[in-house]
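ligand=uracil
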Amino acid sequence: MYDLITKKKRGGELTKEEIYYFITGCVENTIPNEQQAALLMAIWAQGMTDRETTEMTLAMAESGDMMDLSSLPGVKVDKHSTGGVGDKTTLVVGPLASATGLTVAKMSGRGLGHTGGTIDKLESIPGFRTSLTMEEFFDGVRKNGLALMGQTGELVPADKKLYAMRDIISAVDSIPLIASSIMSKKLAAGTDVILLDVKMGSGAFMKTLEDAEKLAQTMVAIGEAAGKRTEALITDMNQPLGFAIGNALEVAEAAEVLHGNGPEDVREESLMLSAELLYLAGRGHRDECRRVAEEALRSGKALEKFCAMVRTQGGDDSVIRDPSRFARAPVVREVLAPRDGYIVGMAAEYIGGVSVMLGAGRDDLGDAVDPVAGILLKKKYGDGVERGEVIATLLTSKEDAVAEAEKRFLSAVTIGDEPPAPRPLIYARVGKDGVVRFDV
Ligand code: URA
């Protein structure tokens, strides 16, 4: 390990054997934590070549079980976000994709730092079970074409180890480390199609379009080299997606979209992602795929898929049919605009942090989340506001957290004199043939 650290520290390239030695040693705990941390920091500082990143990804994917979905019918698809605030698109895209005949057998994660996680969100549905046996998971997919469960302990143990280490030594924001972390889990999950939603902006790991494109290209190259149809969309995370942040609040908003209502950005991003999944699954031209996705939403078929999955996994689908039935938080605080003007900034990262303070996320790994806590935005980027007008409602069970949360929320919002330039929702599409930038 000493030699490996020295080599990487000086900008050298690790061999395949060295990478496998490192990953195996991390999983088997034969390498001291200090040396694991040192090599990760050397990689953070020096980067890795495409070959090293691919070999690291494969070594990580092979560190535990690899899912075999071949006994399931249809094209198995997966959509994965690199992490955002208010991003509930999986709850729309999963049902939508299965309503168009694609097979969605998806393992999702919990919230991480200021970003939310699909499993925490789903657990706010009364009775819904995210811990399934493999048999239950496969039965759910066969029955509904859709099942969502938490990651099992046996999948990619190397990532659990390395991610926790990166988190405490400040080495998360590295393109090769993020790419190998995400793609090792995607390869181990065993789907035929991988669609990556790479978030870009203040609330994302990637702050610039150039970095987001580089991360997307790295991940697409790894997926394609492993024989999976892989693409990425680069989407905006300079402000939260939709109006709702927090577990039950986000499920309710996703349900609204499935009912044909809900915020335009959540609806549009979900349709884009669903159409792209259809395209990658070989279901025709992009225009035709978009039409099919829109029809699955309009007809209510996607809503029915969501309800069917909820019932199969033990949940009460009445809250999906009527989202107003979700329990309400006991403490409600309206945040008022301090001046007249326009919202010119809504820092997603800080707003995600406020929702964690209110109880929607965790400070420590073992903490429980409060399903009803979170934020309902009333205004977003570009909206005009008058002094004293409500810009957001904070919801929590923690009376003592609300004053500080309000202060922090206000510091995350910038009000200017002039309306800001509009910002696109989707910046670019990255495929094996290159990058297509949209109206940036
Ligand atoms: N999400 C992951 O799964 N891994 C990372 O490294 C970053 C985001």
